[in-house]
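[job 4471] stage=fold_predict status=RUNNING
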Amino acid sequence: MDTTQLLKGVLDLAVLAVLKDEDGYGYDILRRLREAGLEEVGDASVYGTLRRLFAAGLLTTYVVPSESGPHRKYYALNAAGRDQLTRSGKTWRSFASTMDALLEDRGMAA
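[job 4471] inference complete, writing structure tokens
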């Protein structure tokens, strides 16, 4: 199965989840996603997702000076982003549970 197609559908949720406990700048968020097991995620996809989530009012930003290069734009969850993370997390768990049940019923469980 092509995991890149699955990733497209859940990248918003993955980015919100990565920002749940700690703010981050673009490359840091990308690194955390990859370390979590989403190695296929692309740079442009993450940066586009961050812009979209910010435009939707789910993230706030602030700039931190960097001694080793340009200033870094950090992203943080705001109240609306936390609410969206909760709602999307429930939706994901329900969907994943349904898929697990379907696969188990057909003898395809992992």
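[job 4471] summary: The radius of gyration is 16 Å.
[job 4471] exit 0
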